[in-house]
Amino acid sequence: MNPGPRLVEVRKNVLKQNDLVARELRERFRAAGVVVVSLVSSPGSGKTAFLEKTLTRLRSDYRVAALVGDLATDNDATRLARSQAPVKQITTGTLCHLEAAMVQKALEDADWDLNQLDFLFIENVGNLVCPSSYDLGEDLRLVLISVTEGEDKPLKYPTIFNSADVAIVTKLDLADAVEFNWETAFSNIQAVRPGMKVFRLSSKTGEGMEKFLNWMAMRLRELRAPAAM
Amino acid sequence: MHELSIAMSIVEMAQEEGLRHGGRVNAVHLKLGALSGLVKEALLASYEIACEGTALEGSRLVFEEVQVVVFCPNCKAERRLDSMQWFCCYECGTPTPEVLHGKELEVTALEIQ
Prior knowledge:
Chain A has a single domain (16-220), classed as Rossmann fold. A seven-stranded parallel sheet of chain A has the order 4-3-5-2-6-7-8, with helices on both faces. In chain A, helix 3 (75-81) links the parallel strand 3 and strand 4. Chain A is built from eight helices and eight strands; from the N terminus they run E-H-E-H-E-H-E-H-E-E-H-H-E-H-E-H. The longest helix of chain A has 17 residues, at 16-32. In chain A, helix 2 runs parallel beside helix 3 (75-81). Chain A has 229 residues and is of the alpha/beta class. The mean pLDDT of chain A is 94. Chain B is of the alpha+beta class. In chain B, helix 1 packs across helix 2 (40-51). The longest helix of chain B has 19 residues, at 3-21. Chain B is elongated, with a radius of gyration of 17 Å. Chain B starts with a helix and ends with a strand. The model of chain B has no long low-confidence stretch (mean pLDDT 95).
């Protein structure tokens, strides 16, 4: 007689492997005292321009480096290299997001001494859906939306906003031309992620960059501050 | 669209567990949160593809969908979220970013023959 089907309890997180690697990375970053910041957004919202400006400005006072993910080409790495900061391209092939293991591998290949870095940036593949599921071991995840994309992006992609820590509204220099409504955008962000910190800036003109960079410097001081008694 | 790589992880995991428990896996039970970043229909289609040519071919993927539950700091209570576009307490309207459930992506059980 055949026994009937039985139900066996498993309880396994499907992303366990990624989460384990991400945890390892986070511990490494923490031990090295480097602030790790990842960037997610839709394609064309200005991640690379923002990162180029950020690297250039931070480089005068801090030691910075960047990993940049794309499906194909190393165009972004070439652009970012203009900042003179060390940059490493991650080409994902057909994959629409970065995973922790790719970050780990890229760091191995780049052979940077993490102890000699203050900030490490990780630019994800342009995509507002898939990157939300993958922890990369970062301290902060920035989600970027440009003024040209419309104020309702947060309402359409609540999941990615819920996986991020800070929102950056980019291309502020175009705000008037596209009749961008800041109040609406801000309240939409707050609706899907109450209390979220939001910066608005223009990588082109530099407007609003100072505020963001000061805030980053504060994060670094916090990370390095001796543990509270 | 990252459902295929997730589906392949699920199949791999179920195969290992199936071997461990000795038997054919008829169904995989999956807990899927509304904030997991995955679309059920796409995952289902990807699952079939991922199963092809493996010991799991012909098996079913059974979903337990998990709604988003937040913590209301005002009511000091767990609240089901009414709208993904409005993270607030449905009783008192207080906004809250504190997500208690909804990010689940977990294989909970296997039906083994």
